[in-house]
Amino acid sequence: MRVALVLNGAAGALLGRPTEAIAARLQQILAEAGLEPRVTLAEGTELCRALDAAVASDAEAILVGGGDGTIIAAAERLLPENRAGPGRPLGILPMGTANLLARDLGIPLSPEAALPVLLAGTTRRIDVALVNDRIFLNSSLPGIAPRMVLQRERMRHDPGPMKWLRLVRAFLRGFDRGPRLHVVLQDDGRPVRLVTRTLAITNNPLAEGFAAIHSRVALDGGTLGVYAARIDRRLDLWRLIARIVAGTWQHDPAAAALAARRVNVVSRRARLWVANDGENHLLATPLRYRILAKALTVMVPRADPDTPETPQ
């Protein structure tokens, strides 16, 4: 079997770590498995070229190490052939900060641990969501979220726990001072009008339960989850945060939730900043969301009968 492995040398998990040593270790794991590996370590524009080369090669599987943005870049390049039928699988080596999709797929959260598990695993097809033809695999967040992404990038190299306190402060300021979004959610039924400072559209609805805010009920259900927070007072905000931790946030009166296959977000603004899986984009309105059912083939661990199932 021929595989291509592309690593983002600037991934969050690699900060302060010997990137070349990690790449050599991953290449060794591939060789020991009897595979013909092509391992590329790249950053920036070189990373895009490396992904293009991997997809254009004769590799039977494309393995990518990086954060959610890197995974999206790889998925975009694999989608055209997937629309015509099952294509070459994408193997995700989590090397970002959140690694949300890897968590939902049950992939170990270190690249050295994930690689042998994926090689011994199987494949499945999952949904891909789009906004104005830009894909996302986890969530798309208009509102204050793009400001949070900018703040996170500014603090990327800051040491210690104080950076997280500054991020929380930026979050609270966003609720207090951020612009309100006047939107109309045009779902599969009657239009829903909302005024909110934060809006989340997820690739399949989110699960409930203790600390399950980022987990999803399914990865191939063919529907979008739409969530808005209508916060006017700090008390409402703190109550909602408490219920997020408790796993009962979807029943909070400050939270609005619905599911649909297509959603249009209509705003008074000509363009809106949107954070797709942690990457900011300035998009023209209306924001047109849709879902491509089972459009992407991914490598996943084999199910263990003694462990809980990952979202299906």
Characterise this structure.
This protein is α+β, with helices and mostly antiparallel strands. It is built from eight helices and 16 strands. It has helices spanning 19-32, 44-56, 68-83, 100-105, 111-119, 145-154, 162-177, 234-246, and strands at 2-8, 36-42, 61-66, 90-94, 122-131, 134-136, 139-142, 181-185, 192-196, 198-203, 224-229, 255-260, 262-266, 271-276, 279-284, 287-300. The strands form three sheets. It has a six-stranded antiparallel beta sheet with strand order 6-5-16-13-8-9. A six-stranded antiparallel beta sheet has the order 12-11-10-7-14-15, covered by helices on one side. Helix 2 runs parallel beside helix 3 (68-83). The protein is globular. Mean pLDDT is 81; it is low at 82-86.
